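WARN retry 2 of 3 for item q-0093 after timeout on previous attempt; input resubmitted unchanged.
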Amino acid sequence: MGACVAQAQIGTGSSVTWANAETGAKFSREDSLAGTTPVPIPTATGTNFSWIKNFVLAVTTLGTTNISNRRISMSGAAASGLQLFWKGVAVASYVQAASGSMPTASGTNGATPAGYTLMTTSLVVYDSASVSSGSTGPNGMMAVCCLGVDFTFAGGPGSATALPSISLTYDEA
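OK item q-0093 returned
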C-alpha cells in the first residue's frame, strides 16, 4: 500500500462534521467554512476576534505509514491590523465555533488571545505525535485558528479582505 492521501478538513456543528477545507476558509463569526458575518473592526484601541476554525489533517486514502510533525504556517504577511493565531487541541476536545468559544476581545491593538500562538510564515509544529495512517479521518491534533482584527486595520469589513493561505504540512514515514 504505502503512503496515504491526506486532506485539510474543517470541523463544524455541535456534533462535529468534517469537510474539505482546501477550497479556502473565510474567518468570520459563523460556524462554517465560508461564513459572511464579518469580524467587527474595533471603534477604539483594541482587537476583536473571529469565531474559531477547527482544522485537521485527515486521512482520506489509507496508508501503511505513520504521520508525524504536523506543522502550520501562512503564505505571507497579513495586512496591517490583521493577525492569524493557532493552538493545538486534541480532536476529542472539539468545541463548536460560537460566540462563547471565540477568544475574548482585548483593549490592546495586536493582542494575542490567551493560549494561542501568533501564526508566521515559518512552519511550526503543532503536533509531533506519530499516528498510523491506517484509518481514515482526523490524524493527530486539530489546529484551532482564529483571526484578530485591531483598531489599526484600514480595510473595510467583510469577505473582500484577502488573507494569506494557511498551510498544514506533515512528515510521513
